[in-house]
Design brief:
2 domains; Rieske Iron-sulfur Protein; 5-stranded antiparallel sheet; alpha+beta; cell membrane; 4-stranded antiparallel sheet; QcrA_N; 32% helix
Length: 352
């Protein structure tokens, strides 16, 4: 049905708008204002039943958005993060990611589609033209802008079409909940995990290269050996997280060359064990100077003196390397006598 098929008395009354002066182009005025084309009414402007149908469509889209948001939250809570499904033609993907993407996309799409359908079918589509004016608005223009705003709000039907209004508010209210639940995707709270490592009393020191437990006689004077806790294997799911905290470097010094008393007490026959993780930004330390007993971080050249409690003698590192107290077990293998007494690496979390 078009506006030509409706008796003129049934058509909505045209409102007067400032269309500007209409003129005809000629030699003196080649850029004449042609004015606006005649306005054609939509079926929703003519038939209230069609307007109601459009209203129900918009409300349905907003309702689907609300249901999709609820589905997003339910998926996040119910679907295991390690579950996978086969989706043609993508293949095997995470069921949780697929469900979250599908529901969040549907929620956002339905809000947008509902707003667009509302604007195209129910809000006023009459074009309004205003003459250019000075930057400073006179009181009359301000009053006109407010009047136009009130008119637009009235024509939008927000107050009259309560079904659209209520469902829209419901969709917009539930949508932010998706962002709240997405914060959980950042992972579990670290709690005290950053303060502790796998080292514990009785845990043997295992050579990183040979994967064999270390005996005191395996560590020569002047040598640098890297160790890990017994039981930590590269096949472990959390290997990278654990080795980043527990990586150890072992050096054997002459007991008389050890200047720090606590370092000497925590050593075994001159064998000292310090964290391999630099206290600046967490790079692995790997360069050792045998004559000076200094270790150097290759990233930013922080230098630590292993004969003096691994204190910082150069570079941007803020504090000394944590030392691990060691001894030997009944079988003669080097073992830890506890965990580090302070967090390893760039330990900003213990400074609060």
């Amino acid at each position: 049905m078009s506006s030509q098929d409706i008796p003129e008395e049934n058509l909505p009354a045209e409102q007067e708008h400032a269309h500007g002066a209409v003129s005809v182009a000629d030699e003196k005025n080649p850029f004449a204002d042609p004015g606006l084309p005649p306005h054609e009414h939509r079926i929703q402007d003519i038939d209230e039943r069609a307007a109601k149908r459009s209203e129900r469509v918009v409300a349905l889209l907003f309702t689907v958005s609300m249901l999709a948001t609820v589905g997003f939250i339910a998926s996040y809570l119910a679907i295991p993060h390690d579950k996978s499904i086969f989706v043609f033609p993508i293949g095997h993907i995470s069921a949780l990611n697929f469900a979250l993407g599908l529901t969040l996309g549907a929620a956002l799409f339905c809000i947008g589609a509902g707003a667009v359908h509302w604007a195209r079918t129910l809000m006023s589509d009459v074009e309004m033209a205003d003459e250019r004016h000075a930057i400073e608005a006179p009181p009359e223009l301000k009053a006109k802008v407010m009047a136009d705003f009130r008119q637009g709000a009235e024509e939008s039907g927000l107050g009259r079409r309560k079904l659209i209004r209520n469902t829209m508010f419901g969709a917009l209210t539930l949508m932010p909940l998706s962002a709240v639940f997405l914060l959980g995707g950042l992972g579990p709270a670290p709690k005290s995990k950053l303060r502790h490592t796998m080292w514990a009393k009785g845990k043997r020191l295992v050579n990183m290269n040979t994967n064999q437990p270390l005996r005191p006689e395996d560590v020569m004077v002047g040598s640098l050996t890297f160790a890990k806790p017994d039981g930590l294997e590269e096949t472990n799911e959390d290997f990278q997280n654990e080795i980043a905290k527990a990586a150890l470097m072992i050096v054997r010094l002459q007991p008389g060359n050890i200047k720090d008393k606590r370092e000497l007490d925590w050593s075994h026959e001159g064998i000292v064990a310090f964290s391999k993780i630099c206290t600046h930004v967490g790079c692995p330390i790997s360069l050792y100077e045998q004559q000076t007993h200094h270790v150097l971080c290759p990233c930013h050249q922080s230098t630590f003196d292993l004969s003096d409690g691994a204190r910082v003698i150069f570079g941007p590192a803020g504090h000394a390397l944590p030392q691990l107290r060691i001894g030997v077990d009944s079988d003669g293998y080097l073992q830890a006598l506890g965990d580090f007494e302070e967090p390893v690496g760039p330990a900003f979390w213990e400074r609060g």
